[in-house]
Amino acid sequence: MREFKILGIVVFFTLVTYWGVEPFAHSQMHKHVEGHEFVYDGTADIEETVDAKKEMKKAYWADVAKIATLKGDATSGEAVYAMCMGCHMEGAVNMGGVTPPSLEHTGALYDKNYLIALIKDPAVAMNTDHKFADTMMHPMGSIKTMVTEPQQIADVVAYLLTKKAGEVTPKEAYAEACGRCHEMRYAKWTQLGKTPFFKEKKDELAHQIKVLDEQAAVKGYMGKLPPDLSMIIRARSEHFLETFVENPQSQLAGTSMPRVGLSKEGYEKVTAYLTMIGDPSKPAREAIGPWVILFFVVFAVLAYLWKKETWREVH
Amino acid sequence: MAKFEKAKSVHEWLDQRLAINTLQRVLSTEYWIPKDINFLWAMGLVLAVTFGLLLISGIFLLMYYKPDVATAFDSVNYTIMTEVGYGWLWRHIHGVAASVVFLIIYIHMFTGIYYGSYKKGREMIWISGMLLFVTFSAEAFSGYMLPWGQMSYWAGMVITNLFSGGSLEAYGLVEWIRGDYVPGDAFLTRFFMLHVFLLPLVIIGLIVFHFGTLRIPHVNNQEGEEIDFDEAAKLYKEGKKKESKVIPFNPVFLSKDVFVLGIYFVLFFYLVFFHFEFAMDPVNFDTADGLKTPPHIYPEWYFLWSYEILRPFSKDIGLIAFGIAQVALFFLPFIDRSPNVAPAHKRGLFKIWFWVFIVDMIILTILGKLPPQGIFNDLGLVAAIVFLLLGPALVVVTLKEKKL
Ligand code: HEM
């Protein structure tokens, strides 16, 4: 029928235009970055490195792989963990630019290989070693002298993966993985945590000053204040966020944001929070959408019957 | 004063005072439409309804939007999207409708061109339509400024810069338009005024005008046949509905329009709920930052073809080409010299001209979004030159056309 032919032509040209300005244009605008499925074996880091450090990185990640094969003992790991608590304790304060995050759910959020690498040398694991002449200068760098034996590393990682791997909420995931650097004003979150309610204006202002001091410290360390992540879930594509968190250097070469070595599950928790805050209507859309569409399907069917009825006598 | 009898019903009471019976007859039950039309003739009503959706959703958004550079972004992205009940729904309806309305406008325009519905008495329909197109464009652009995201700011910067006129360096004019050296509070509040008051008012007026221009020439039909409407209407009223070439707007034409609307709404709400990203650019979810130029600045998809006519040339030539492209379509009824009102497939060379035009518009649209590098740049130059040549080509093609 003629009308279907016309419809076909309209649909065809519409889809070609859509394809051109959306999927195709975006594929041309953004450089393609391979995802690594949250596997941390240093491949990308070694590839990126062009200077003398290449060999060092090869040896480093080979060591990490070796340590990963050791059988860790969680009980001995607890003693090593006490050293971590020197910095990561409850009520930790800013050191070298950031406040060390809580490690309460580290085992549930981070990847095993990444944790090994992190304890071996934080700056290299986070892929920000280019910022430090000596990776000891990293705010967590001194761990290199505290935990030196491969077995110790295996033990403390075993401890984290068994004892610090409890159920984690999306909010806790965000707080521990991103919250020390990134503000989130739509969730009343600052680098100092959730902003409490103050009865007195004076207390509120005093708190604001503390936040400003913390932000100044983070800015001093990172070179710029990390952006607020309230709307980031809609401002970046899924693929960008995933590859960026896996390895920020892959998307923004030279950036000061460190790698956050999340596991797939950990990453999903973090994005669940970013979605709750930045795109909270998602569940409502999914619940109401089908009904609205169904309503108009019924509407269209009824309208069709009306049309048939009215046109019968004119044809 | 006229003499009034006591009315027996509310209807009669109103009819005495407002002549609603006459109005209804003239505007609807005896407003004649050719029978030989297809669903493309429903696009006008689809446009009117989509404009209605924009108006209603816009009113809801307006209750919470704050035109101030410090609060605009959060009033949209936090207050409306999070705190206001169903605020997200109104925003998505508004955003998707603003994009889809242009798709329908283009279909509506190309339909007019295909069937030759812009000539021989229908020139004013076309011109009023073009005025609507231009006003709609301004409405869309001003609306895009309001969330005060990165793309609002930078698109605002780039587009207002065009008014410096290239080598004329009329920066005074640019500043006058912006109310400042760079887009800022004064800029935002004036575009807010335009978007929620002046332009909608003009659009409503133009829609009424557009409808008025349809009155005397009536709409065209699939074969471009010249119909004696009085004759055909007489037949219809005598009950010879099958023989008559016309149908009344209400209920016959309307029943088909409403069916097309139903299908349209299914698609429209699918987009609103599940596929709105195309209408809401991710970059605009970053707050405006005058110190951080985004790597790619591009307008919304419906402006891309004219943007691509600007880009591949040197500054001044680009501006002139852009200026020509903006006004060229207004003159279509006068550039087309053929005496025929007929669908393109019956008009020989014009058919080829038409499809080259469509394909060139789409190529320009796609290239307008791609980074202007290498092959894309060369293709853009060719496509823009083709567009400019299509004007003179139409004169030649239509002068040669034989009377059908
Ligand atoms: C929101 C904007 C617009 C609305 C609400 C609107 C509405 C309408 C309506 C209701 C009709 C009659 C039914 C039909 O043929 O579809 C119509 C016809 C027409 N419109 Fe528009 N229109 C709009 C924009 C435009 C534009 C941008 C153009 C082109 C420049 C245009 C050109 C025409 C032409 C040429 C006709 C006559 C079609 C024929 O005779 O077959 N309109 N319009």
Task: Describe the structure in your own words.
The complex is a heterodimer of chains A (315) and B (404). Chain A is mostly helical and 315 residues long. Chain A folds into 3 domains: 1-30; 31-280, no CATH class; 283-315. Chain A contains 16 helices and 2 strands. Chain A has helices at 2-29, 43-48, 53-69, 74-88, 106-109, 112-120, 122-125, 143-146, 150-163, 170-177, 201-222, 232-235, 238-246, 248-251, 264-278, 282-312; strands spanning 189-190, 193-194. The two termini of chain A are 16 Å apart. Chain B is an all-alpha fold and 404 residues long. Chain B folds into 2 domains: 31-294, Cytochrome Bc1 Complex, Chain C (Up-down Bundle); 298-404, Helix Hairpins. Helices cover 65% and strands 1% of the residues of chain B. Chain B has 16 helices and 2 strands. Chain B has a two-stranded antiparallel sheet with strand order 1-2. In chain B, helix 5 (87-114) packs across helix 11, helix 12 runs antiparallel to helix 13 and helix 13 (315-328) crosses helix 16 (374-400). The longest helix of chain B has 31 residues, at 185-215. At the A-B interface, helix 1, helix 12 and helix 16 of A face helix 4, helix 5, helix 11 and helix 15 of B. The structure holds protoporphyrin IX containing FE (HEM).
In DSSP terms, counting alpha (H) and pi (I) runs of 4 or more, how many helices of chain B?
16
User: Roughly what percent helix of chain A?
Assistant: 55-70%
**Strand/helix succession of chain A:** HHHHHHHHHHEEHHHHHH
Tally of separate domains of chain B: 2
Largest sheet of chain A: 2 strands, antiparallel
CATH class of the largest domain in chain B: Mainly Alpha
Q: What is the string of helix and strand elements of chain B?
A: HHEHHHHHHHHEHHHHHH
Number of strands of chain A: 2
Helix content of chain B: 55-70%
**Main structural class of chain B:** mainly alpha
Radius of gyration of chain A: 26 Å
Q: What share of the residues of chain B does DSSP label as strand, in percent?
A: under 5%
